[in-house]
Amino acid sequence: MVRIFAAIALILSLASCQTDSSGGGGEATVSTQNADDTRVAKYLFGAVTTPSPGSSAPYGFYSAGCQAGAQALPETGPTWQAMRLSRNRNWGQPVLVDYLQDLSAFAATQPGWAGLYVGDMSQPRGGPMASGHASHQIGLDADVWMLPPQRLNLTREERESISSIQTDRTDGAYTNSSWTPQHEAILREAASDPRVNRIFIFAGAKVEMCANATGDRSWLHKIRPWYGHNFHFHVRLNCPQGARYCEGQDPIPPGDGCADAQQWVNNILNPPPPDPNAEPVEPRGPVTMADLPGQCLDVLGSD
After folding, report:
1. Helix (H) or strand (E) holding 260
2. Which of 141, 225, 288, 294 sits CB 3.0–4.6 Å from 136 for a disulfide?
3. Rounded distance, CA 218 to CA 192, Å?
4. Which of 201, 48, 69 shows the shortest CA–CA distance to 128?
5. CATH number for position 94
């Protein structure tokens, strides 16, 4: 039965780093100038290699939007390196770049960590990606590798070939021997930052942190169990102040969420029977420009 659940989880996580079950919708109250535009958005945004000029702004929802005026996380810094540079996904809103630099400085204080290896953020102008993510579209999401950096002088070639480490076992029900107190300390710091909306990680890690947390436990509220997320954790920031066309996610339910995470684990180990009354899920076609805020047409075409 664990294998059956694992197969289901794999299907659900193919477009990893989506919104969790407490998520909001994806419809921003913005321009609809592209309402009849049926072009597939991922090909258009994936082909653009530079950010749009002008002021920084996120448009739309985390999984249905774009970003203007993005900044690049420098490929290498004193306490970080951006990975998989060939993807050109080390772009984000200024608040995300600042946040990652701050978090990496904290990580560098942990034994055995020189800083952070940062995975996918967003494309230069955000928008849907050709592979890997349903979200990461408005410059406010980032993946942080579980691999503790031993050095921060990796070449471009090494950043393409090196892999992160797996930190779970039993399909995400438990942490494995690669999970350390330093992972927990970094996640506590990551979630305690007021810029953060939520952090996605596999359920067993949340349960482990719930068991180990002492003192102030309020940060656990932002740690959300989700499929996959065993080689990296996914940070999602709040809409920046004044970003009038950025659509925030629905609030996380009150409490530390530990009982919810334990239920996830229980369902991994003993999957509930399928609901015979469940409506079949209609396959969704590719995201088109008509699915995105109208401003994304301007972002895509600006030079």
Report:
1. helix 258-269
2. 141
3. 8
4. 48
5. 3.30.1380.10
User: 3-state class of 207 per DSSP?
Assistant: helix
Q: 164 φ, ψ to 5°? A: -75, 180
Nearest to 191 by CA among 237, 230, 244: 237
At 141, is the secondary structure helix, strand, or coil? Answer: strand
Total count of domains within the chain: 1
Is 15 inside any structural domain? no
E-strand ranges in the chain read: 57-61, 64-68, 71-72, 76-77, 80-82, 91-92, 116-118, 141-145, 168-169, 174-175, 196-201, 223-225, 232-237
Q: Contact 164/120 with Cβ under 8 angstroms? A: no
- The range of the structural domain enclosing residue 151 comes to 2-9+21-271+287-301
Closest among 71, 85, 82, 76 to 126, alpha carbons compared: 71
Over residues 210-233, the mean pLDDT reads 97
**Interval 160-183 mean pLDDT:** 98
Task: Please provide the distance, in angstroms rounded to a whole number, between the alpha carbons at the two ends of the chain.
Answer: 53
- pLDDT (tens digit per residue) in 53-109: 999 999 999 999 999 999 999 999 999 999 999 999 999 999 999 999 999 999 999
91, with CB counted inside 10 A (0-12, 13-18, 19+), is buried
25 band by pLDDT with thresholds 50, 70 and 90:
very low
